[in-house]
Amino acid sequence: MGTSKSSGRTASKAERRTQLIEATIRCIAANGLSDTTTSLVAREAGLSQGIINLHFDSKDGLLLATLERVVDEYRSLWEAALEAAPADPASRLAALVEVDFHPSVCDRDKLAVWFAFWSESKARPTYRKLCAARDRDYDRVMRELCRELVAQGRYDVDPDLAARALAAITEGLWLDMLVSPRNVSRREALRVSMGYLAHLFPQHFAEHFKLQAERKAS
Amino acid sequence: MGTSKSSGRTASKAERRTQLIEATIRCIAANGLSDTTTSLVAREAGLSQGIINLHFDSKDGLLLATLERVVDEYRSLWEAALEAAPADPASRLAALVEVDFHPSVCDRDKLAVWFAFWSESKARPTYRKLCAARDRDYDRVMRELCRELVAQGRYDVDPDLAARALAAITEGLWLDMLVSPRNVSRREALRVSMGYLAHLFPQHFAEHFKLQAERKAS
DNA sequence: TATCTGAATGAACGATCATTCAGTCAGATT
DNA sequence: AATCTGACTGAATGATCGTTCATTCAGATA
What we know:
mainly alpha; DNA-binding
């Protein structure tokens, strides 16, 4: 069987697809979506011209598969983090935010891909559906956690508003990390988000935030 | 002189450039940056093929001029709002936030343009410089206002962190308005941002926020 | 070892792109 | 009314794009 090395003339279908998708991510980040050509992607993957049509039928198929890959990876990451976190809403919310600034999520190449597809989502309904599906589930979980926290701590906070603000902060920081990575590091971004949580839910996050600040000082 | 109607065979240089830039904005929003071609823009403007090279030398020149236009317009809007606002930091900060959700800024076509260029900023240093220049001045003003507010109200808040979070919220909400405009209206976005300010600086913004909520209820 | 299989190649294709430029035309000048 | 000016046109051009397919080749099979 051909489930061996990924570099030879033969590799499993899944391996080739992954190899091409990763090359696509690098190409989009390096050249922008408008200058991402099939031959460029093929060269980046170290393969030949026709390879993309062989594995994805068309360039559009490759781009769609790339978006799907990034979306699925992100989703499984935060679902796993939620699974692994303690049952209390504060820990779960913290886990969610920490995933958002995990190196694998904040990878600048992947951020470039996210924003490339977001920016074309108005023109391409297919992109929009995929992205909107991501938002819907993520927002639902985050809103629910905020509600539980507000009830638990008797905070004077609109949980829906807080959840929206928190999601917006994350997306805004992602943009900052993409456009001016010098100004915003992952750690700083995490501090901004956690700082917001500490203000909203002081009983639950004040400690968490302080601890993180000290860790930074040392 | 030819400073007359914009639709005839003759129009002033500035008018034609504006006409073409506006057509470009619509094209980017409708088709995405990757599918924005010179002939499409020319058709959208109701003019002929070669018109772009005549007024902007190249397609790249047109795209750059479009980005510059959007950047400049945004800058002059918030500078004017700052000028018109009362001198106290709270009013000035509120004015800044209100501009961010002004119809002219939140116009979905323009948002598509912003994100199109942001998403390619990693690949194109020229785009990055233009966008980074925007951020630098805006952030500086916002940070300064937060500092003044913290000092004035003796809040237990890190002003730099607050300014960053506020800027991130704005950008995140812009993204939401672009990708899923059904979920986030301008008014709701403004409420999210103002809600954040009300939490951070209750003495200064609690009233403002309540008033806005009542206005919404009626 | 010889044969078979299908993954991978890369030259070739038509389509589409940005750009050019000789020609056209509206409006100002004389 | 005749001429001039320069903004504008649009067919033509070369370059580049995505896609195709006859051919090649590595590894499994007999």
